[in-house]
Amino acid sequence: MSSFTVNNQPIRYRLPPDTPLLWALRDASNLTGTKYGCGTGDCGACTVDIDGRAVRSCQLPIGRIEGRVVTTIEGLSRDRSHPVQQAFLAANVSQCGYCIPGMVMAAAALIRKNPDPSEELIRAQITNLCRCGIYPRLVEAIQRAARAARGEETIPAAPMPGTDPGDAARAVPALVPGAMRDE
Question: Pairing mode, if any, of strands 53-56 and 9-13?
Fold first, then answer.
């Protein structure tokens, strides 16, 4: 059995110690925000925070993290109030969204470690892959999140999870059909 903390809850997994953390989170804890991408630790879809560091969970056996603290996208902020989540939503970073949980976790760890990251540092540290090509918006969103975390900028709150799409469209013009088209 392996014991560690997940999203501020002590957990004891009755799984073999060589079970990848990704599968313990997804299958045993039903924390499906952490995604399976490549299975080799290259793409970053499985990124979680372990003791303040961004870690690829698909290659990390749970037996190696005994007593550590793991935060998943579900534990970062349930109401989307974390500056990285707010900045990603405000900049419309997501396209298909599959890579976003891992990107958010990597970005949150980066700005916690370096509160004023340069474009070069962001590009060097955020090595997660995105097939949709969000990278130009990604850099800008991470810098904006860092400014918000430092208290230098306010990002308008995103609609709460579970918000009716019609209500969200009234609050966020980008969600209104046709609002972003040239008419």
Answer: unpaired
Q: For 52-64, what is each residue's pLDDT tens digit?
A: 999 999 999 999 9
Find out whether 47 and 79 touch, Cβ atoms under 8 Å.
no
Sheet holding 47-50, edge to edge: 9-13, 2-6, 69-71, 47-50, 53-56
Mean pLDDT in residue range 16-40: 95
What mean pLDDT do residues 57-76 have?
A: 96
* pTM for this prediction: 0.85
Residues 6+ apart with CB under 8 A from 28: 13, 15
- pLDDT attached to residue 165: 62
CATH code for the domain of 118: 1.10.150.120
Q: Which domain holds residue 71?
A: 2-76
Read off φ and ψ for residue 96, nearest 5 degrees.
Answer: -75, -30
97 in any annotated domain: yes
